Amino acid sequence: MSESVIDQVAVEFRDVMARVCTPVAVITAFDDERPHGTTVSAFTSLSMGPPMILVSLDRGSDLLSIIRRTGRFGVNVLAHDQADVALRFARKGADKFDGIAWSGSSALPRLDGASGWLACTTESLVDGGDHVVALGNIVETGLTPAAPLTYHDRVFGTHSAFEVAR
Ligand SMILES: Cc1cc2nc3c(=O)[nH]c(=O)nc-3n(C[C@H](O)[C@H](O)[C@H](O)COP(=O)(O)O)c2cc1C
After folding, report:
1. Which residues are the signal sequence here (predicted)?
2. Number of domains in the chain
3. What is the reported pLDDT for 67?
4. Ligand 1, from 22, 24, 26, 41: best to mutate by most atoms within 8 Å of Cβ?
């Protein structure tokens, strides 16, 4: 393949993936006593028996370094009114939790107001290009009724059901 074709594939790959409507979650872990978190859209369920999920993290992610050390991570599935939380955790820094309401659960930081909670122990970390896929075993779950936060075409939104014809 020529370089221009490879460039076009890289650009169009991003554009095609932008058309995939995704959920938004903040993955959390403790760096010693300090809570840390990172916004992700690349997470999905993996297995029902045993219950497992996977999360794809950039090799340069500070959260990934913490998970490598601690072997556990939390998944906070964000609610429709948490776009500001998603943006807060999508930047670098040790102060992302400043002013954020949270509590400890299963030795992991759990965000207030998220619609879903999964506490995980790391089953394995699998290299995938410039990302690492973390496979997690679910050890605790939590639910709060709330419409989801979604990400589509680089814009936050929520889900709306089709009207059911009667
Ligand atoms: C909507 C959205 C989705 C994102 N999805 C991912 C993702 O799936 N994986 C990832 O590694 N980074 C993702 N990011 C980028 C990280 O949140 C960002 O690089 C963050 O600064 C990493 O922080 P850390 O180094 O403290 O882990 C996403 C950002 C946004 C705004």
Report:
1. none
2. 1
3. 98
4. 41
